[in-house]
Design goal:
This protein is an all-alpha fold and 99 residues long. The protein is built from 3 helices and no strands. This is Hemerythrin-like domain-containing protein.
Length: 99
C-alpha cells in the first residue's frame, strides 16, 4: 500500500489533507489523570489511542495555524516546517500500521 503524499517532492509541490469530520478539541493545559498513565501500563493498546489523539490534536492545531496564516498573512516558513514534521510522523505511522 502506498504512503499518503508519497508522490509529493520537496521541490515546492504541495498537498492537501482533508478531514472527513469534526475533531474534538483537546486541551493540552488540562492536567492528565494518573489513572490514565497507570492504565496504559496495564493495557498497552491505550498507547495507540493516545498516539492517535495526539495526531488528531496536532492536525487540529495545524489547521488552526493554516487558517490564521490565510486570514492574516505573514511568513509561511514556520507553517511549512510544522506541516513537513506532521507529514513525516504521519508517513511513518502509516508504514507501521501497514506492517
Amino acid at each position: 500500500m502506498a504512503t499518503p503524499f508519497s508522490g509529493i517532492d520537496r521541490g515546492g509541490a504541495g498537498g492537501v489533507a482533508v478531514l472527513a469530520g469534526p475533531v474534538n478539541p483537546i486541551d493540552p493545559a488540562a492536567p492528565s489523570k494518573t489513572c490514565l498513565k497507570s492504565s496504559a501500563l496495564k493495557s498497552p493498546i491505550l498507547i495507540f489511542l493516545f498516539f492517535h489523539k495526539a495526531i488528531r490534536s496536532e492536525l487540529d492545531g495545524l489547521h488552526s495555524a493554516a487558517i490564521a496564516f490565510a486570514t492574516t498573512g505573514g511568513d509561511i516558513k514556520p507553517l511549512l516546517e510544522r506541516y513537513q514534521f506532521f507529514r513525516s510522523i504521519y508517513k511513518h505511522h502509516c508504514n507501521a500500521e501497514d506492517e
